[in-house]
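1st attempt posting a full record on here, be nice pls
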Amino acid sequence: MKFTLKKLTVATALAMSALVATAADSIKIGSVLSVTGPAAFLGDPEIKTLQMYVEDINKKGGVLGRQLELVHYDDGSDAGKANGFAKRLIDDDKVDVIVGGTTTGSTMSMAPLVEKAGVPFISLAGAVVIVEPVKKWIFKTPHTDRMAAEKVFEDMKKRGLTKVALFSETSGFGQSGKKETEGVAAKYGITLVANETYGPKDTDMSPQLTKIRNVPGVQAVFIFGLGQGPAIATKGYKQLGMTLPLYHAHGVASEEFIKLAGPAAEGVRLPAAALLIADKLAANDPQKPVAEGYAKAFNAKWKTDVSTFGGHAYDGLMMAVDAIKRAGGTDKAKVRDAIEATKGFVGTGGMVNMSATDHMGLDLSAFKLLEIKGGDWTLAK
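the predicted structure (as tokens):
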């Protein structure tokens, strides 16, 4: 009996040692996302995407013979909480790379910590401030707010719309979007004849919209925000009987926006990644197999439509994995250098070409201008 117990004890110890060794040998992907709170319809598809592809990669043997381990925290759309979770990822969890930061506010609250610690960080947020000026350890996958404003103004210019009302959110994304929109307006011959703001938790925006409606000569309205706010603004816009052309930024590029705004979303134009119209891309478009593959996999796994936000997470994870492979391991400095050297990476957001002076790697051609028709995304004409 004693002999048996001894054998069991030794076997148990060996098994535990093996488990510890396996855990220590995993590649840790850290993530802080807004899975709950006002930005949840961005963060929810992001975490689902990371979970799905980490599982898939592991089933196929992992990366460099090592399994991926996703270490995730939900900041509840609170930038202050994101800072605390980033500290935990770095100090306690000892992650190898971070893919996350749903919002600009959360990303920027995490930025000083990752820069100081020297951890590669691929953000999923939109504002240009994340990568301008360039920060050594920080990269991003989505198109910037400046690009969104330029894409919208390109279309307005073609349609002869030059007097525009800007309605922006007071969040980090909205504030940066406001600044960038104001900065590029003159370049496209656009005059901002009204400039109103709303809070991300506002439930009634009729006072600001009424002011916009009463501005003499206004020809179009551009709403810059993310989460539920833009849908509330869009519904209020229609309820007030406003019929001017309505544009949004890329912070609403999700089926959830169409569901929340309902019929009021009809005719809305916005810039977005090709992912939303993957099935409508030309057969020879290099993005088509990537976008369609992701869309089909996401829909099959979660029984819901894709959003560009989940696509940002896919791009971030795949770029991190690609960089780890090229770096030959998880040495943080080598992985950082490999991310910065990314060239010709075809993601859901476009063709990515990073450099020491460009930590996003996308140009304006990566954006498609879409119009919501019949409750669906279409290419704007």
